[in-house]
């Protein structure tokens, strides 16, 4: 079993919390979502995503201890199914569009599988280092990768929250998949942009490693993000191996 903690907060500016998360610790599954859309459409999208995924896993057990390709295909099929459902809801009830980011973590022994769509993030904290595993699907990150802007310009770019890929935005979606080994003492942090836009990677690393447990770590992260302004919804899920 893993030690884990979580906290989801509306923040100090938004009226509606469009973030959502779900944990299935007995299966080593943790997920977060950040909804996108006018009115309450983003809230519907993120909650539909986590509900659909939990139901999908209950009805279609994860093929653990199988080959990596089989497990990856399982999660690709899962994301495709969730994407189709949210897209169909949007066509009927949200003409302005609705979608959500999504990060799924599945721990299987000494392996971590990560599925990502959008700009919510997963970090790996190991010893004195923090590393972003996922890649942001944003317009600004595309500029950064092409060398058009530097990291400082990216942090302050007016379009830094414009995402280029999301679950439910189009009929089909292509998730990123990552696989890496985990070791005793590793900490995995999953968070929405309401956290990492307020705190630097080094600040998040220090708060987590200075905390006595994962639950208090998530609470401290969210509290500090709110102290910095809390301009967006904030979600943090942390898991210690």
Q: Can you walk through the features of this model?
A:
- The chain has 7 helices and 11 strands.
- By secondary structure, it is of the alpha+beta class.
- It has one domain: Phosphatase 2c, domain 1, CATH 3.60.40.10.
- A hairpin with a 4-residue loop joins strand 2 and strand 3.
- Helix 1 (41-59) packs antiparallel against helix 2 and helix 6 crosses helix 7.
Q: Order of helices and strands, N to C? A: EEEHHEEEEEHHEEHHHE
CATH topology: Phosphatase 2c, domain 1
- Taking pLDDT < 50 over at least 5 consecutive residues as the criterion, the unreliable ranges are none
Rg calc: 17 Å
What is the CATH class? Alpha Beta
Number of helices: 7
Strand content: 25-35%
